[in-house]
Design a protein that fits this description.
mainly beta, N-terminal domain of TfIIb, 5-stranded antiparallel β-sheet, globular, disordered N terminus, DNA-binding
Length: about 150
DNA sequence: CGTCTTTGACCCGCGC
DNA sequence: GCGCGGGTCAAAGACG
């Protein structure tokens, strides 16, 4: 797995098809899920990767996060976020960045923990969380949040 | 010796 | 208020 989360960022699903080099394929479209459960706070669109295709990251969306109630009257904090599922035995996928784990929590209604990582490059605000799919442990759900302020590795 | 994991405590918003 | 759920901190240890 090697891609940069700064690449191919778009703001909506419709913008996605206008990205140069991006092609909507049937299997991708069928794979889009609208996850709106308690697992993820916001409604997040993510592609489901077919086995053997995890090496090719074709496109993604940005989730415009709702203004966090934590932000209280302040300026609305906009955070880019996207997630995807990957069929994988291991959850430590090398995506070209260096991550430092800073938390682990059990998810409600699931036996699987969720892991919290932060990009270990100084000043870089990017976080990701990794958890195993509740109803199909063969899949790993990775959620990226933020944009790297540097090149990978 | 610096960096990363581990893990319980802590914080905060929300619903009851 | 209080408890719960999701997210984060930080002290201590592991590891190279």
């Amino acid at each position: 797995m090697s891609y940069n989360s700064n690449q191919h960022l778009t703001t909506s699903e419709s913008d996605l098809s206008e990205q140069p080099g991006f092609e909507f394929t049937d299997w991708m479209f069928d794979g889009w899920l609208n996850e709106n459960s308690s697992t993820l706070t916001d409604s997040v669109m993510y592609p489901v990767y077919q086995e053997g295709e995890v090496d090719e990251f074709v496109g993604n969306t940005i989730q415009q996060a709702e203004p966090s109630s934590r932000d209280h009257g302040r300026e609305r904090e906009v955070r880019e976020r996207f997630a995807f599922k990957t069929k994988s035995e291991v959850e430590i996928l090398d995506d070209g960045f260096k991550w430092r784990k800073y938390g682990k929590k059990m998810v409600k209604n699931s036996p699987n923990p969720r892991n919290y990582y932060k990009c270990s490059v100084e000043g870089c605000p990017v976080k990701k969380r990794v958890e195993r799919d509740r109803e199909d442990p063969k899949y790993v759900i990775t959620t990226y949040e933020g944009v790297h302020t540097h090149e990978s590795s």
